[in-house]
Amino acid sequence: MLQPGSCKSSTVVCPLCRKVSILPGGHGALVINTTLAEVVKLLPQSGGDPPGPPCAEHPDYTLQLFCKNCEQACCGRCVSLRHQGSFHNVNLLDVVFQEEKLLFYSSLKTLREMHKRLAKEISDEDKNTEWNTQ
Fold first, then answer.
1. Where is the B box-type domain (predicted)?
2. When comparing pLDDT for 55 and 25, which is higher?
């Protein structure tokens, strides 16, 4: 809710607590909401939701976000209702998928290296046992 007047400062109403505050520097001083900006980028130019699985709670919305703290896929409406604040780490579902895939392949590589090393140790131990029994 903007009050007409000076460009140097604005009066705004907090959408969460409804407190009226003066914003020195005007709207240009506001920090960009990057999560919202990413959600807006996902919307096609035609104006509808991009294709994807629908949200179980909000069928008109698609699941495109993921809350890492809750370990739950969610739509934009779910984020605005239940996944806000410093206790929720929300990111795009595609980004989280890529991060988890990288983590999986990194862990798999580590496990394969451990398996190879342990198999070599077992083989060496078997050779030492055979040599000592002769």
1. 55-93
2. 55
